[in-house]
């Protein structure tokens, strides 16, 4: 089952925590805000660490429409 990751760019502060924890899944774009580059690029544990480590709780992870965060 595939994970779906969404980022609230209104609240993202560009801390980079997510790309630190899961570098293949998240990156910062030209605006300095987080984007998802590959939702399947990291193990689920690291995606969850990234989501839980977001200081502004801007990352939502769902699987089959069920929220994991
Ligand atoms: S950890 Fe949260 S606030 Fe920091 S860049 Fe990622 S989404 Fe944005």
- Output the number of helix runs: 2
Work out the count of structural domains: 1
Report on the biggest sheet.
3 strands, antiparallel
The CA-CA distance between the termini, in Å, is: 16 Å
Class by helix and strand content?
A: alpha+beta
Unreliable residue stretches: none
Q: Level of helix content?
A: 10-25%
Elements, N to C (H/E): EHEEHEE
Description:
It is a single chain. This protein is an alpha+beta fold. It has helices at residues 17-21, 44-53; strands spanning 3-7, 26-28, 34-36, 59-63, 66-67. It has two helices and five strands; from the N terminus they run βαββαββ. The strands form two sheets. Strands 1-4-5 form a three-stranded antiparallel β-sheet, covered by helices on one side. The chain has a two-stranded antiparallel ribbon with strand order 2-3. Strand 2 and strand 3 form a beta hairpin. It starts with a strand and ends with a strand. 22% of the residues are buried. The protein binds iron/sulfur cluster. Iron/sulfur cluster (SF4) binds at residues 7, 12-18, 34, 54-56, 58-59.
What does the secondary structure layout of this molecule look like, with pairings?
Elements: E1 3-7, H1 17-21, E2 26-28, E3 34-36, H2 44-53, E4 59-63, E5 66-67
Antiparallel strand pairs: 1-4, 2-3, 4-5
List keywords for this structure.
single chain; 69 residues; Alpha-Beta Plaits; 26% strand; binds iron/sulfur cluster
